[in-house]
Amino acid sequence: MSDTCIFCKIASKQIPVEALYEDANFIAFRDMNPQAPIHILIIPKVHIETIMELDSETLMTGAFRAVQATAQLLNLTAEGFRTVVNCRENGGQTVYHLHFHLLGGRFMQWPPG
Ligand code: 5GP
Ligand code: ZN
Asked: What is the pTM of this model?
């Protein structure tokens, strides 16, 4: 837990959000600046800065389980969706607490800008 990290505050419920999915290690909530009709963030409850600091195999597996479960709950599995992890400056990461973007509800262009 980092005192200055906004996602730690969300994970610890100091800042309340509507949890769309939650398990022992992850929580999913809506992005405040959505880039698609459905734009969810899935975060570990522990503070991990970027995907490069993710070294727990339990959390690696759990992250993808959480993405799958959230996509299922939001009925995204038939039409499809995109999952994105931005890493540091060139990846466009702005919040340094690992998060998986789950984007759906429209066709996603490729390549991204
Ligand atoms: P990044 O650019 O780091 O991959 O993505 C950070 C995302 O977090 C952005 O899409 C931004 O809109 C979202 N975000 C930042 N602060 C908050 C917040 O306090 N609440 C919510 N729900 N989303 C946030
Ligand atoms: Zn954090």
From this structure: 0.97
